[in-house]
Specification:
The chain is built from 13 helices and twelve strands. By secondary structure, the protein is of the alpha+beta class. A hairpin with a 2-residue loop joins strand 8 and strand 9. The chain is elongated and about 100 Å long.
C-alpha cells in the first residue's frame, strides 16, 4: 500500500499465480485494512515526530510498537472476516519466499513487523487479546496520566523556573534613589559604561522608560503603552536615581531590564498589561496626494548605545516653531506627532521609503511649541485636558504635507499598576 493522502495498492507481477485464491484474498484483505485505518498517514506523521525528537529513545520505541500493533490489528481483521488461519499464514509465507519487502517504514506491507511471532499468533488464534473492562480502565488511567503528569510537573516547576530567571536577570550592583524637587526631562544619562543616572523625574515616567513607551531612550513608534492604576504620588513625587552595574552594559540593557529590576526591588512594583480600544489619530494620504521630499542618499539605523550622529536615519532638529526630520519613515513622523498630540498617531498611509520632512506649527499660534503641558497630560493624554489649538496646528501642518489626521479607534496597551510603594 503506497501513498499517504490517496494510497494505492501495488501488486507484484505474477502474485496471483503464486498464491491460491483463499491465500490471495486473505493477503488482499490485510492490505485493504491498512487503507481503511490510514496507516500510511499515521506512519508518516510519526516519521516527522522522529525527525524532530530524534534524540528521545521513547519516540523510537513508540515507532517500533506502532508497526507491530498496526500489523496485529490487520491480522485480527482478516481472521474476523472469515479467512482460515492456515490459508492466511501460508499466503504470508509465500509472499516472503517470492518478494522483498519495502524498506520504507511509512509504506505498509504484509511482511512488516516480527514475522515469526505473527505467524504463531495467527495459527494459534492469539492475534489480539480481549479488551476487558479492567484493561479498558487501566488504559484510560494510563492515557490520563500521560497527559496530566507532564502538565502538573510543568506547573509545579514554573515558579522555580521564574525565580531562576529572575535571579539570572542582570541587575545593578548598587543603586541610590533620592527624592528631589526640580523636575527635569526625565531622560537617563550614562556617566560611564557601568553607570546609569536618571535626572529628577516622576516614577511614572521611569516606568514608561523601563517598560516600553520610551524604551531604549527613544519613543517606540509601535508602542501605545499608557500607565494607569497608580496612586497620585507616582505622577507628582520626583526622584533621582544613580546606579552602578558590575561591568559595562549597553544603554538598552540599563534603560530596560536592569531599570525594571530596580523599580521592582526598590519600589515593590507589581503590574499587569491590558489591551483596550482607545481613540487614536489615523495618518492617511490627502486627496491631492503626498507632498513630501524623498530622501536621497544613505543613512544608517540609529544605534541607541552610541551618541546621535548626522548619519543616523530619522534624525530630528528643531527650527523656531517647527522641526525637521531627515531620512524619516511614516512611522517616524507618527512617533513625533504622538508626543505632541493628545492621542497616539498610527500610520494608515501604506507608504514606504524615507523622506525629508519639515513641519511648521506656527500657523495657528507663534508660541505654540512653548505651550506648557501638565504631568497629567503626559501620563494620560486621553483623559487630561489638552489645548485644541495644538491639534489644529498639527492638522494644518499635515495637510501642507499632503496628509490627513483622522480621529479613529485603535488598540492601546495599558500598563496597570497593581502595587507600588515609596522607597525606604
Amino acid at each position: 500500500m503506497v501513498g499517504v493522502l490517496r494510497p494505492i495498492l501495488l501488486l507484484p507481477a505474477g502474485i496471483t499465480e503464486r498464491l491460491q485464491p483463499p491465500e490471495f484474498e486473505a493477503v488482499l484483505a490485510h492490505e485493504l485494512c491498512h487503507f481503511r485505518r490510514h496507516d500510511n498517514l499515521t506512519s508518516a506523521i510519526h516519521m516527522i515526530v522522529e525527525a524532530v525528537f530524534w534524540f528521545h529513545p521513547l519516540v523510537w520505541w513508540i515507532g517500533a510498537r506502532l508497526i507491530q500493533e498496526r500489523e496485529r490489528a490487520c491480522d485480527e481483521a482478516v481472521l474476523n472476516l472469515g479467512s482460515k488461519p492456515h490459508d492466511y499464514a501460508e499466503g504470508i509465507l509465500k509472499v516472503c519466499k517470492s518478494y522483498v519487502e519495502s524498506p520504507l517504514s511509512c509504506v505498509s506491507g504484509v511482511t512488516s513487523s516480527d514475522l515469526k511471532k505473527r505467524i504463531q499468533a495467527i495459527l494459534t488464534g492469539r492475534v489480539a487479546g480481549e479488551l476487558t473492562f479492567a484493561k479498558k480502565l487501566a488504559l484510560g488511567v494510563a492515557a490520563a496520566a500521560a497527559i496530566t503528569i507532564p502538565v502538573s510537573l510543568g506547573i509545579m516547576g514554573m515558579p522555580r523556573m521564574q525565580a531562576q530567571s529572575h535571579e539570572l536577570q542582570p541587575k545593578f550592583e548598587a543603586a541610590s534613589v533620592k527624592s528631589c524637587e526640580a523636575f527635569s526631562n526625565g531622560h537617563s544619562l550614562e556617566l560611564a559604561a557601568e553607570t546609569f543616572r536618571s535626572e529628577c523625574t516622576t516614577l511614572e515616567r521611569l516606568i514608561e522608560q523601563a517598560y516600553g513607551l520610551f524604551g531604549n531612550g527613544r519613543m517606540d513608534p509601535g508602542s501605545s503603552l499608557m500607565v494607569i492604576g497608580g496612586p497620585a504620588w507616582t505622577m507628582s513625587d520626583l526622584y533621582e536615581i544613580e546606579a552602578k552595574a558590575q561591568g559595562p552594559q549597553s544603554r538598552a540593557m540599563m534603560n530596560g531590564p536592569m531599570l525594571q529590576a530596580l523599580l521592582e526591588d526598590r519600589f515593590g512594583l507589581k503590574f499587569h498589561r491590558e489591551v483596550r480600544d482607545v481613540p487614536v489619530y489615523a495618518l492617511t494620504v490627502g486627496d491631492r496626494g503626498l507632498k513630501l521630499q524623498p530622501f536621497e542618499g544613505t543613512c544608517i539605523a540609529r544605534d541607541f548605545d552610541k551618541p546621535p550622529s548626522d548619519a543616523d536615519c530619522g534624525t530630528a532638529s528643531a527650527y523656531g516653531n517647527g522641526f525637521r526630520l531627515k531620512g524619516a519613515t511614516m512611522a517616524d513622523l507618527c512617533a513625533g506627532f504622538s508626543v505632541l498630540l493628545d492621542r497616539r498617531v498610527i500610520d494608515k498611509t501604506g507608504i514606504g521609503g524615507r523622506f525629508n520632512v519639515y513641519v511648521d506649527l506656527s500657523a495657528e499660534d507663534p508660541g505654540l511649541l512653548n505651550h506648557p503641558r501638565s504631568l497629567a497630560a503626559l501620563s494620560d493624554p486621553i483623559a487630561a485636558p489638552f489645548p485644541p489649538i495644538l491639534f489644529s496646528a498639527a492638522e494644518t501642518a499635515m495637510k501642507n504635507l499632503g496628509l490627513n489626521l483622522e480621529a479613529s479607534k485603535g488598540p492601546g496597551e495599558f500598563f496597570v499598576i497593581d502595587h507600588i510603594e515609596r522607597p525606604i
